[in-house]
Amino acid sequence: MRRGIPGGLDNRVALGLAIPAGLLGVLLAWALSDIPAAAGVRVCADLAGAAVLGLATLPRLNDRLPVPWRMTAVLAALWCCLEFVVLVFAAGEVVGSGVAALSPADFGTYLVRISAGQIGLAILLATAVVAGYAALAFRGLVQRTPDLVLVFAAVAVTLRPVTGHMSQQVFGSVLAGVHALAASIWLGLLLALALVVRGRRDWAETLPRYSGIAVPMVAAIAVTGVINGVVRLGGVEPFVTTGYGRIMLVKALLLVVLLALGWWWRRTWVAAAAAHRMTAEASLRRAVLEVALIAVVFGLAASLAITG
Questions:
Q1: Average pLDDT over residues 42-61
Q2: Which of the ends of the chain has fewer CB neighbours closer than 10 A, N or C?
C-alpha cells in the first residue's frame, strides 16, 4: 500500500533523500581531506540507527502514533548489516591487509582480542536484538513495547563514541555520548515524523512537541561539539590547517545554518501547523528538507568519526 498523503508527497521520500544527502556530506568531507571509504557505510549505519531510535521514541510525543513495527524491523536489520560492514572495514584497517585480503581468522581475532572489535561486536548484537524483537512484535509474538528498542538502540548509538578518543579526556566519554545521542534523537524523531505522520491533526499535535525537544538536543550538540573540537585539535589554527579541522569547521557552519532555519520555522511552520493552518503535505515537505540538511551534517560527522 502506498504510504503518503493522498494525492501528495510519499512519506518514504524522507528516507530516500536522507541516504544520498548523508553520502553528499561524506563527499564534501572527502573534498576537504583524505577520508577512508568506510565513511560512506558509517553514515548509512548512523542514519538507520537514528531512524530506529526516532520511530521507537515517537509514541512519547503522541500516543496516537504507535511504533510501525515492520518498518522498525526492516531499518534495524539494515542497521545491523551496515554495522557488520563497518566492522569488516575496521578489521581490515587494523590488520593492515585491507578488506580484500582479510581472512576469517584475522577478523575473528579482531572481534575477540581488540577492544574496538569487541565494542563493534557489542553494537552488532544490540542492533540484532532490536531487529529480532521488532520482527517478533510485528508478528504479534511478543508483548509490544518501544522501551526495549529505545534502550538497545540508545546503547548502540552511544557505545562507540564513549569509547573513542574523547574517552581519554576528563568527562570525555560523557560529552561524546551526549553528542551522539542528542544528534540521533534530533534527526531520528524528525525522520520518524516524516515517515509516519500523515494528517494535519497529527502534525498539529506532534510537531510542537518535537520542536520543544529539538531545542535542547541542538544545544547539547553545539556545546559538546565545540568542546570536542577544541580538545581534539588543541587550538583554533588547526581548524583551517588540518583536514580534520576543516571538516569540523564546515560541520559547525552547517549547524549554524540549521539553527537559523530552525528558529525561522519555529516562528512560522510550527506555529502554523499547531494552529491547523498548514496542510500535511506542506509540513512533510519542510520535514523532508530539514532531514536532508541534517543528513549532510551526519555525513560530515561520520567522516570525522572514521578519521578520528
A1: 95
A2: N
Q: Of 166 and 269, which is predicted with more confidence?
A: 269
User: Which amino acid, residue 211?
Assistant: S
- With beta carbons less than 8 A apart as the criterion, state whether 120 and 90 touch: yes
Is there a contact between 205 and 215 (Cβ–Cβ < 8 Å)? no
Separation CA 280–CA 291 (nearest Å): 16
Q: Which amino acid is at 87?
A: L
Q: Quick check: helix, strand or coil at residue 165? A: helix
- Give the Cα separation of 293 and 227 in Å (integer): 23
Query: How many residues belong to the chain?
Result: 308
Amino acid at 66: P
Based on the number of CB atoms within 10 Å of its own CB, is 266 exposed (0-12), middle (13-18) or buried (19 or more)? middle
Strand partners, 10: 4
Q: What is the pLDDT of residue 2?
A: 43
Instruction: Tell me the C-alpha distance between 33 and 46, whole Å.
Output: 21
- pLDDT value at residue 275: 94
Of residues 207, 186, 246, the one with CA closest to residue 62: 207
Q: What is the secondary structure of 189-243 as a DSSP string?
A: HHHHHHHH--SHHHHHHHHHHHHHHHHHHHHHHHHHHHHHHHHHHSSSTHHHHSH
Judge whether 37 and 170 are in contact, CB under 8 Å.
no
**Residue range 79-96, pLDDT digits in tens:** 999 999 999 988 888 776
Q: Each residue of 93-125: pLDDT tens digit?
A: 877 667 777 888 888 888 888 888 899 999 999
